Amino acid sequence: MLVNPITQQPLALPLPQPNLITPGLKAITQLPQGLQAQVLTKLMNTAFAVPLAEEEFDFLAGRTIRIGLRDLNANWFVSLNEDNQLLVRLSGEEDASIEGDWLAFLKMATHYCDPDTLFFQRQLSISGDTELGLHVKNLLDSLEIDTLPKPLARSLTLSHHYLTKLAL
Fold it and tell me: One of this protein's Pfam families, by short name (predicted)?
């Protein structure tokens, strides 16, 4: 932690934005809605190809979880279609939601921080069908970075190193 050398008080610095993921997320949220949903659907199905093939998302059949990124003012409604593929929409009804700033989701995805700690510290929150929200949280927490597509795995690994160096 940086401190003021005169007062010895912690410096209130703006939180730096971790490297490779921030510009991509911001760019996605600026796309027209139809294109944004298509891009997110493709990215999620690519990123989660292994757990989808292993039917780990079957609990989502007929249900919708809203992923809310508060700081980016983005809401993604994720469900499972009849072809066992994730479908992302930008509006709709949700059975449950998980919300937080994108940095909290990054900390969970990179295993930088235990997800229960993020929920206890209110960096992430679940509402609606708590069981469904916890199932999604546990699935995301169980994913291994090395099973993800290489560009995403590399970005997450670099972001983890960034978080570690900054001790965020």
Answer: SCP2
